[in-house]
Design brief:
Blueprint (H helix, E strand, L loop, with lengths): L1 H20 L11 E6 L22 E4 L2 E8 L7 E8 L10 E7 L12 E7 L3 E7 L4 E4 L5 E8 L8 E9 L11 E8 L9 E3 L12 E7 L10 H19 L12
Parallel strand pairs: 1-3, 1-13
Antiparallel strand pairs: 2-3, 3-4, 4-10, 5-6, 5-11, 6-7, 7-8, 9-10, 11-12, 11-13
Length: 264
Amino acid sequence: MKKTSTIAVSILMLCSLLIATAGIANAGNMDYELTEYWAVTSPTIDGEWTSADEWTDAPTMNISDNAMFKFKVDTGNAAGYMIDMLVEFYNDTTNDAGDYYQFNFDNDNSGGTAPDSDCFMIEITGHTDLAFYQGNGAGWDDITAADTVEWADSIGVSPKLGTDHYILEIAFNKQGTIAVGAPPNGVRIAVYDASNPSAGVEAWAPGSSADVPDEWGVNSSYSSEPYVPEAFSVVVVILLSSVAVAVGFFFTRKHPKTVINYTR
């Protein structure tokens, strides 16, 4: 019995350690974290759900009530080792010159109140023009990074919303000029609809500024396993598995025989 108790306590201590370390990162807004899941399906970057399952292997992250994104690592893309992202902007169906998407990355997750040289921004304006920026310690410098991004957007429907809205697909080359870093790193995704200025800039993490890395969300971990729905996170699965092992061990171990001596 003493040996069984020791094993059970050890398992519980391991689970506690996993909980304590699962979200460790250097900077950024730790209230908003995502996990890099390895892609099961390589998406076609054409601004639509080309197949019904091309984005089901990544969790849905809400930018706001009006927008969401998905994020996954793809080694099967023909262009190489990629970060694939999907953005759906539910209430935008107008092609305005002032519309934009913003993607920010803090590759070493050092944070700060201004972007440094490890911070990058990709901005798509008017659904046509793409620009790249690198931090300089105080603001942003224009850079050339054409080898970094493949993208397309269009107005259409999706499994998430059956009425017309903007759908953007974008892939970042991890061997390109910007070379989006491995976790942990800072991440920010924002959308703006020029025909609805009262909504302002809608961003993940909420209220974050493109100029303040400390406010960005955090890509805190990665998993080489297929995506597990939100209700069953990786840590939860590990905990449940550990409990199952402990319970199974307890009920399947050999119990000592009790010998009763009868005397007449």
